Write a sequence for this structure.
């Protein structure tokens, strides 16, 4: 099987959107976490939203090992007593929520939530649902890893109504796994874990990464085919991201990093391979099986209307988007615990969303999330047509064959879909682009010094 060729006119595309950045943080559509220039604000109190539906993210930092590509806040080898203390702190942070609120969507991530013993995870989930009763049809997701998932965990999830499980596999190649310091066992361990989750009745998502060191298209296709024999409902397929917080960034050569041509080639390959396996691309990195299209879970909106945030994050490093402000909890384990136990706010940084930031968020939730951008809706929200804010950029993207007008909406072309994140970056506010650009030479110097 041969990958689709990337367009030959890379210079024209790069001129329209800029080169692929070597240093990335969160997914580009997860703004402003993708350019996390938070202002220090220790102990700031979060705006308390009125009673109503909330999205909730819960950060469980515990892991059995530290992957070299991971930049999330985590702890390896934590004793049970500290885990118990952390779960108690999460419960106390939940008490901050206005009584009468409900749960529009839950995502328990990390770290590795299933690194928690099943009884502690049951305690945590029980407290969450007591404080925030789930709305009808709410998506309730827990992340897991093959080596940490037990039958006891599965029984807890079934009993408490968790309906979606996301399994982080990343790759089945033993050599690549070793290079990543990832220890989820042989390929059969991961595949059997998928079988157990499907047999238990969950909607199962599997994460795989492309562009890993030592990985080629043939190896990724082999992983993809093996995983899909287990009939997961959806696949999350994303390219390797690196920044100064990832150990892998210090040893990866420039040749191994994804430049614009390589990124486009990988994405064209992934798009073709998933289509041949019968999976439908529903978002930029989400591919849904034919047997699951009608039952696939959509993300609940994290805003009231298209503006005021209603998303709470609890736990160390967790982020909340409430009103027009994004709050970040302290990333340190002990610092977070001490603040919660003292009855203080765990926040240590804030990001105030100005008008330019809110425009970026609008585009992130449309073009940046695989949806067309409705021109009239933009005008209704911001009181002016999108050309008044981004006219020159839109002309440039159109001339490069990346964006087209379709019945009063802006949509990405087939080529544009291969660089959706770079297109979205071009819509970022100037202050965010400057911050990201400043990180690129920092990473180059760090890598050079490590050598």
């Amino acid at each position: 099987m041969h990958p689709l060729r990337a367009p030959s006119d890379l210079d024209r595309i790069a001129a329209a959107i800029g080169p692929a950045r070597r240093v990335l943080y969160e997914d580009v559509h997860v703004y402003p976490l993708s350019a996390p220039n938070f202002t220090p604000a220790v102990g700031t109190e979060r705006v308390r939203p009125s009673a109503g539906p909330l999205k909730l993210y819960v950060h469980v930092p515990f892991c059995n090992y530290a992957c070299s590509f991971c930049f999330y806040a985590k702890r390896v080898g934590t004793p049970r007593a500290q885990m118990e203390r952390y779960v108690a702190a999460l419960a106390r942070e939940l008490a901050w929520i206005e009584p009468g609120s409900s749960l529009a969507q839950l995502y328990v991530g990390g770290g590795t939530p299933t690194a928690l013993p099943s009884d502690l995870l049951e305690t945590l989930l029980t407290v969450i649902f007591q404080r925030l009763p789930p709305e009808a049809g709410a998506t309730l997701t827990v992340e897991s890893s093959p080596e940490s998932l037990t039958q006891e965990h599965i029984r807890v999830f079934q009993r408490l109504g968790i309906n979606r499980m996301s399994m982080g596999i990343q790759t089945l190649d033993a050599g690549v796994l070793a290079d990543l310091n990832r220890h989820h066992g042989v390929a059969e361990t991961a595949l059997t874990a998928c079988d157990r989750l499907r047999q238990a009745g969950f909607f199962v998502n599997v994460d795989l990464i492309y562009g890993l060191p030592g990985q080629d298209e043939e190896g990724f296709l082999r992983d993809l085919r093996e995983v899909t024999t287990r009939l997961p409902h959806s696949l999350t397929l994303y390219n390797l991201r690196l920044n100064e917080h990832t150990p892998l960034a210090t040893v990866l050569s420039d040749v191994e990093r994804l430049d614009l041509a390589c990124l486009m080639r990988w994405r064209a390959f992934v798009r073709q391979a998933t289509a041949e396996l019968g999976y439908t691309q529903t978002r930029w990195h989400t591919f849904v099986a034919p047997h699951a299209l009608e039952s696939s879970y959509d993300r609940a909106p994290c805003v009231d209307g298209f503006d005021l945030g209603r998303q709470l994050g609890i736990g160390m490093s967790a982020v909340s988007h409430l009103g027009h402000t994004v709050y970040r909890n302290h990333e340190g384990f002990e610092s977070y615990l001490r603040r919660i136990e003292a009855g203080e706010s765990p926040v240590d940084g804030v990001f105030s969303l100005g008008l330019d930031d809110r425009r970026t968020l609008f585009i992130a939730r449309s073009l940046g999330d695989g949806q067309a951008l409705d021109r009239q809706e933009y005008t209704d929200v911001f009181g002016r047509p999108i050309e008044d804010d981004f006219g020159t950029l839109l002309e440039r993207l159109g001339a490069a064959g990346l964006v087209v007008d379709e019945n009063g909406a802006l949509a990405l072309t087939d080529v544009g879909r291969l660089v959706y994140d770079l297109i979205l970056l071009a819509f970022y506010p100037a202050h965010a682009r400057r911050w990201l650009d400043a990180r690129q030479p920092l990473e180059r110097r760090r890598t050079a010094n490590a050598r």
